[in-house]
């Protein structure tokens, strides 16, 4: 099986993309829920500073020290951002916009001053090229394995282990930070560890998809999952599924159209987000429209039931509980009146005999529930009932 993987370049590329997406969505889910997802953009840019500083100190272009240095830079970015926010002079979004361009600019200047002949450049860090991951390999035993596959696999396992071990604590700190503090869970420390892992994931990913595309994987799959479910554990599953589907479909379309593979993968995350926005079962535009339409039709049926109930067994029943009276009292045209009557008949709420309309027991009970909620109090008017 390993031989088949190492001989299959497209599979390696899709697998690296999927691992980047899974590792990113694991930490990105909490960033999206906390409303701090744009910190990933700040981290994605500012890690250039950390990468250059580590190279200047150690002359290592990759490895654990690079990941650690860039991760610490991400934490520094958040620390400086919070420091500015605490001054109450700027808001958080403005603070992010002030901090990461400074660190990114310093990193670029250091690259140009001290690392002109070293294969560390802003294009590589920001954009990457996932199509070439199979060229950069390391030897393990008798096999040469893509370095990105190993680094992203390690980050995926690390992020997954962190989320699994501290799932309850992270959940509580995300949704009720005050209670988490009261219980002594140190939500601030958990958040910084989360950002440390986010920074490490960004560094591990920049060779493959680049920091900019990494941001798409951090934000879009969790945001898509958020439109599909209210359950946290399902958000993780949906985010992973979107990441895998985006990697596979992105690679396929990039080959067909001869465009950037990483860019197409990021585009596909946006496509899945759009699909969830339009056709999501609960929050999608189509689902909301269908619910509003269904509620509107239900209100029409309720209005008819209340009208018939109010005039039932009264001297005016023969004049009021007929189809033509709906035009005068409810201001319905003939088409609407016929439509509501037919739907009410289909639900076995009323029965029609020519022009005459009569409530069935189910329709009478529906009207009573509206006019006499809980069996207490005076009947309410239709306008009060429909609010």
From TrEMBL:
Keyword field: Cell membrane, Membrane, Transmembrane, Transmembrane helix, Transport
Coiled coil segments of this chain: none
Transmembrane segments: 12-32, 39-58, 64-85, 94-115, 149-167, 179-197, 203-228, 235-257, 263-285
GO biological process, one term: response to zinc ion
Membrane topology: Multi-pass membrane protein
Localization in the cell: Cell membrane
GO CC annotations, alphabetized: ATP-binding cassette (ABC) transporter complex
InterPro entries referenced in this protein's UniProt entry, alphabetically: ABC_BtuC-like, ABC_TroCD
Entry similarity comment: Belongs to the ABC-3 integral membrane protein family.
Protein name in UniProt: Manganese/zinc/iron transport system permease protein
Source organism per UniProt: Halomonas cerina
